[in-house]
Each structure stands twice: as C-alpha cells, then as structure tokens.
Amino acid sequence: MDSDAANATRTRSRAGTYEAWYLSVGDPARRRGYWIRYTSFNPAGGVQDEADSALWAFRFDHDDPGANWGAKMSFPLETLQVRSRPFVLRVGGALLAHDGCSGEVQGERGTMSWDLRWHSREQPFPFLRPPWHAISSFANIGSQPALKVSGTIAVNGQATHLENVPGGQGHTWGTSHALEWNWGFASGPDFWMDGGTSRAQGRLGGQLVGTAVGAHVREHRFLLNGPIHVLGTRGPIAADSWTAQATLGQRRLHVEVTSRKSDLIGVTYADPRGGSRVCYHTEVADLDLRLTQGEEVLARVRRPAAAAFEYGAESPVTGLSVLF
After folding, report:
1. What whole-number distance in Å separates Cα of residue 186 and Cα of residue 13?
2. Cα 259 from Cα 317, distance rounded (Å)
3. Dihedral sign (CA 89, 95, 101, 103)
4. Is the peptide bond before 124 cis (omega within 30 degrees of 0)?
5. For residue 245, what are the CA distances in angstroms to 92, 214, 281?
6. Using CA atoms, how far apart are residues 234 and 186, in angstroms rounded to an integer?
7. Separation between Cα atoms, residue 101 and residue 94, nearest integer Å
8. What is the CA radius of gyration of the chain?
9. Phi-psi region of 249 (alpha: psi -120 to 50; beta: other; left: phi over 0)
10. Strand pairing partners for 194?
C-alpha cells in the first residue's frame, strides 16, 4: 500500500458514514503545533443531523495556551471531491494532495490559512491490517507517518514560516466513531510513532477494545497491527495521557504521551448513527518512548511539547471546555 491507496476515499458519500483526512504539523523550536482536517459526514436514514463536508484548523501554543486557536467551516457534502491516483482532495477552495496542502478557515476569532509542501519517507501504517479493519465500525491509517513539512501558516495575518519541521498525515473513516479512544503521534528526523487505544462497537455485535501502535526509531522498526496483537493489547484510556505497552517476540515498546489540560481543545464529532462524541486534542503533548529487548534499551525518544494527543468519548470531561 502506498500513500495514494491509503488516502483513497472509502465512503464515496454513502449514507451512514464519516471520513476524515488530517495533518499534524509540529514546530518544536517555537513549541507550537497545528492540526488540519478535511472531512465528510453523511448520516444514516432517520438521523436528524445534516450531511456536510468541512474544513477544520487549529493552532496550539505550549508556552501561551491562551493563544490556542480553532475553527470549522462547513460546506455542502458534494463540495468535497476526491481523486485517488494521484491523490487529490478539494473542498471549499482548499486542497490536500500526496505532497502538500493549502486552505483557509474563518472563525469567530479570525482566520487561519496554510500553504504547505512536504517530503514523506515512510510507507503507510494501517492501525489494523486489511482486511481485518472491517471488523470494527471505524478504521484508521497513518497514510504518511513521517513528513518533513515546509511552507507558511498564518493566524489572523501573523505568518509563521516552517522549514522541514516534523509532521504526519492520516486518514480515518467508518460507520460510527469509537465509543472511547486515545491517540498519539509524533515524528522527527530519525523516528516516528503512531497509534491508539480504542473501545468500539464491533460490526458483528459487542464491543472491541484494543491497541495498535507503530514506531520506527533509527534502525529499529516495531509494527503492532495484526488482529490478535491489537485485540490482545488493551491498556488504559484517559483524558490526560495515553500509555501503551506492546510486545512483539522479545521486544517491548512502551509509549507515554501526556498532555496538560490547558493544551487541549475540545470539539464535537457528530456520529452517522446518531448522537455525538467529544474529542479533546493537542499537538504539544510530551512523548516518552522506549523500545527494549530484555534488559537492553534499544532506543529511547523523549520529545517535550512535540507530540499529538487525543482523547474522545461519548460525554464531555468535567472541567474541560468544548470549542464547538
């Protein structure tokens, strides 16, 4: 699977589905991060929510959380157009392609615009290897988990120029969001890590709980995304951190992504089957990653204020605000 195949649309505007393509961009020198989403939502019959496509844009500032910014613009569903090879997505005048993206979102607190290009050095990482992703109500692929991003992002006319900063681009879709989840992501010149723990509705009934995680640190590669390993690796789901401990053979990967409450922006996801989920997201969480074999530490990565973190659930978290 290449990035074009990973990003190919899976819903084709079918009723009872959602789909999202997203970009995480870090700016470690300034301790800032950005999150951009291109989405479609088409509810099932009988659900009162309106179908739409949308652009979402967010800025996170670890040193000044009061400067955090976010907005969403909605458009008619048919506005979103996708070509699979080479991958190109357009919605509301915005563009997402296999090697860059551009767009603009206007909100109550002003405007965020972006014009970015990137180089990718890794193959996609599906959280559950095909065809096993079909056992759940949703699927997730790290389409391009290790990017070097360059370009300009401007918030209310204040432009930030980026040069080969770390990033990643992903794709998610389904007939219903997970009931509860954590997600973590980070990348750098010599590593990437992508994964999550979810509690979701199984397509055949009942609930599924599991953890998928992939990492590549220098010469060490660790991919835990087979169904037995994913469903056999559960772990906690929490509003302020994601902790995963995964084992493959004699190697063990420990990942901890931790966020401050002040760094989280809460948003609401409508669910195609009715109801909603509340998602709390940041791009300036702390990462601590260790890969071991027995007593030997094969690799260690620590990145303060440079990781993406997400917590989602059916109900809001007491004490945390929701932007929209």
Report:
1. 31
2. 14
3. negative
4. no
5. 41, 12, 22
6. 21
7. 8
8. 18
9. left
10. 185, 214
Q: What is the DSSP letter of 273?
A: T
What's the one-letter identity of residue 269? Y
> Does the pTM exceed 0.90?
yes
> What single letter denotes the amino acid at residue 100?
G
Bridge partners of residue 35, in order along the sequence:
24, 58
Q: Which two tokens stand for residue 287?
A: 């990462």
Alpha carbon 146 to its chain's center = 13
Q: Which ranges in 115-209 belong to alpha helices (H)?
A: none
265: amino acid identity, one letter: I
Closest CA to 89 of 4, 14, 175: 4
Backbone angles phi, psi at 149, to 5 degrees: -110, 135
Cα 43 from Cα 308, distance rounded (Å):
28
Any idea which residue has 């300034």 for tokens? Answer: 30
Quote the CA–CA distance of 47 and 317 in Å, as a whole number. 25
Sign of the CA dihedral with 226 first, then 37, 301, and 181 last: negative
**b or e along 89-99 (b: 16 or more beta carbons within 10 Å of the residue's beta carbon)?**
bbbbebebbbe
Identify any residues that bridge with 159 across adjacent strands, giving them in sequence order.
Answer: 154
Whether 169 and 22 have beta carbons less than 8 Å apart is answered as yes
Question: From first to last of its 324 residues, what are the pLDDT tens digits of the chain?
Answer: 999 999 999 998 799 999 999 999 999 999 999 999 999 999 999 998 999 999 999 999 999 999 999 999 999 999 999 998 999 999 989 999 999 999 999 998 999 999 999 999 999 999 999 887 777 889 999 999 999 999 999 999 999 999 999 999 999 999 999 999 999 999 999 999 999 999 988 777 788 899 999 999 999 999 999 999 999 998 999 999 999 999 999 999 999 999 999 999 999 999 999 999 999 999 999 999 999 999 999 999 999 999 999 999 999 999 999 999
Which two structure tokens, joined as six digits, stand for 221? Answer: 């590669």
Beta bridge partners of 255: 244, 289
Identity of the amino acid at 113: S
